[in-house]
Amino acid sequence: MSKYLIDKFLYTVDRDPELVERYREDPTGTVEWWEAEMANTLLNCIADERTTWLAFDDEERRALREHDHVALFQLGAHPFLTLTLFIAMFERDHGPLEYQKAYGKAMEHISLPYPDIAT
Amino acid sequence: MAELAAVIASTHHPFYYRASTSTGADRPPFADEWVAKIEAFRETLTRAEPDVLVMVGSDHFHQLWLDNMPQFLVGKAPFFDANFYNEEREFGLPRMTLRGEEDLAAHLLRDGLDRDFDLAFSNELRIDHSITCPIITLRPQADLPIVPIYTNIFAPPLPQPKRFVQLGRAIREMVESWDSDKRVAVIGTGHLSLELGGPRQFGEHGPDPEFDRKAVEWIASGDIEGCLAEVSLESLHTPGNATHGFMDFMLMMGVAGEGQKADHVDTLDLFHTMEAYFTWYPNGVPAGSER
């Protein structure tokens, strides 16, 4: 399991307007491309210094492909990253705070302590 | 030596800018009360007549990331650009540029390291809403130079709560030992109980009003020891998954000092969080100010 890589995916997509739209419209293709091309790019390093070993496991890949925010929470993804990216993708389809409240309600079966988010 | 003109602690609700500037049907019903409280809070800084602002906040994964995460970082640059694309997108925050106060930043770095705080530094820091929200609320003309100090309340492992208090005490001493005739205000923002991305988010009020009540009392009365006795990294998870931001309030309690009652205390129970505003005047209340 790679909580770090999930967070890295959410972080790099959330801060790039084009990637936000790409992930909204084509989650499967975006996850496949990102894992192949971006996962092993060391941030703040040139391409020649890319690493070699970072990869999602099957459940992580599925959760990202399916926009499954509940599964991402349970996998220990940083909840701020998931929330802010998913608001960017889906709030526009809903009324004021409607998406955010539904987002929380989908997790109402989850009780304390929440999954560890340390990477 | 520099004078510590005011110590200010508050929440940093990113929706304030949009709520306070909205009109007509877009203006939320709580906006007028919120604006009135903010304007009274702003006056507490105005009356202190500061020349420089030391601003304690926390990057929200905008620039600082898990490949190289500092626990405490001082920004040392002549200018700071502010707010990121995803804050414009989500909160409607404007882009800003703030001047830096490099001499004070250098002093805090040198003196802080010598006091055994392993401070990171950045000569190329873009600041986010944890610092621009208090600029918008407290100094909207954005005319004073700043020294940003970022703390990690966001990406475990986090420093212990007592470390935030210790850093606050050190910041107080370092500001007062700065070789300058400037008047310095230290402003820090954090959270009371808060949940983001979890099942308790965006409720009718903060996820744990009982914690909020106790937290406001600790801060208002300067009860650092009582607060430290009840708060731990583990316990802060219970009132809401983003409540570790309360440690920035604890840092500000350290700046204000043990047992120091705040000169201005105000709160506003908003949807999904309680707003809270505190001001201390270490050298006495400025003329015409409230008590």
From TrEMBL, chain A:
This is Extradiol ring-cleavage dioxygenase LigAB LigA subunit domain-containing protein. It comes from Modestobacter roseus. The lineage of its organism: Bacteria, Bacillati, Actinomycetota, Actinomycetes, Geodermatophilales.
Automatic annotation (TrEMBL), chain B:
SUPFAM superfamilies: LigB-like. Keywords: Dioxygenase, Oxidoreductase. Gene3D superfamilies: LigB-like. Residues 8-264 form the Extradiol ring-cleavage dioxygenase class III enzyme subunit B domain. It comes from the Bacteria. InterPro entries: Xdiol_dOase_suB. One of its GO terms (molecular function) is oxidoreductase activity, acting on single donors with incorporation of molecular oxygen, incorporation of two atoms of oxygen. It holds the Pfam family LigB. This is Protocatechuate 4,5-dioxygenase beta chain.
